[in-house]
């Protein structure tokens, strides 16, 4: 099974660090994020595709063509903006009806949790977080993806289920033109939602996802992973 790592972003919220260093190479707990991503990949993963753009040569130089015994293919991100636009870059590298895992190149995950996604034909990662500017993800009683909503007062105060950037999908996603968001970007989670009636999606809740989007995130991640060996499942 392939995993597609979306690693083309500029990381504007982490400037000036990301002016000369791509986000996947930022060290957390002494190890670059990309190392932690590879160590967290489920055993079922046999091939890695990395979508690159910003400072791509530094990522290629560090990771190479074989990293942690995974063969690695690099694909330049197309001009289309957004996560779905980035994923479109890999379309020709996948077979018809092929299932694959998608993760962000600036997030840290737990191997056991990532493995849970593979139990379903399509799955959508969620985690309860205090991030008021993000959509609240609602599920049906059968844990199927139901919709995205603005957070209510309780969720803004105590946390809401938000998308954690992990998806198991298949190449039928490319049959949709992509949902265009208000900022002009094409959103992968919104495109997955748009296909939910034809391709039901199971929500998989995690607890160990660590996003790295800000300097505060880096500080929290450093504290959490200070004593976590890279060879552990995190």
Task: Kindly describe this structure.
By secondary structure, this protein is of the alpha/beta class. The protein has one domain: Spore Coat Polysaccharide Biosynthesis Protein SpsA, Chain A (Alpha-Beta Complex). It is built from 8 helices and 16 strands. The chain has helices at 17-20, 33-39, 56-63, 83-88, 111-117, 153-158, 188-194, 215-225; strands spanning 2-7, 27-28, 31-32, 47-52, 66-67, 70-76, 99-104, 107-108, 123-129, 136-139, 145-149, 160-170, 179-180, 186-187, 202-205, 210-211. Strands 5-6-4-1-7-12-9-15 form an 8-stranded mixed beta sheet. It has a two-stranded antiparallel sheet with strand order 2-3. The chain has a two-stranded antiparallel sheet with strand order 8-16. A hairpin with a 5-residue loop joins strand 13 and strand 14 (186-187). The model has no long low-confidence stretch (mean pLDDT 94).
């Amino acid at each position: 099974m392939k995993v597609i790592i979306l690693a083309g972003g500029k990381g504007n919220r982490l400037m000036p660090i990301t002016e000369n260093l791509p986000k996947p190479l930022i060290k957390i707990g002494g190890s670059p994020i990309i190392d932690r991503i590879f160590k967290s990949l489920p055993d079922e993963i046999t091939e890695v595709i990395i979508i690159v753009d910003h400072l791509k040569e530094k990522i290629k130089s560090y990771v190479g063509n074989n990293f942690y015994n995974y063969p690695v293919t690099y694909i330049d991100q197309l001009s289309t903006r957004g996560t779905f636009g980035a994923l479109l870059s890999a379309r020709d590298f996948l077979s018809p009806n092929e299932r694959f895992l998608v993760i962000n190149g600036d997030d840290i995950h737990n191997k056991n949790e990532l493995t849970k996604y593979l139990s379903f034909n399509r799955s959508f990662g969620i985690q309860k977080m205090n991030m008021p500017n993000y959509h609240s993800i609602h599920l049906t009683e059968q844990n199927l993806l139901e919709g995205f909503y603005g957070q209510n007062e309780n969720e803004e105060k105590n946390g809401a289920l938000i998308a954690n950037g992990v998806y198991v999908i298949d190449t039928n996603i490319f049959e949709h033109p992509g949902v265009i968001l208000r900022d002009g970007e094409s959103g992968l989670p919104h495109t997955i939602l748009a296909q939910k009636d034809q391709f039901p999606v199971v929500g998989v809740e995690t607890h160990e996802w660590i996003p790295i989007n800000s300097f505060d995130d880096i500080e929290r991640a450093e504290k959490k992973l200070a004593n976590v060996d890279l060879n552990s499942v995190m």
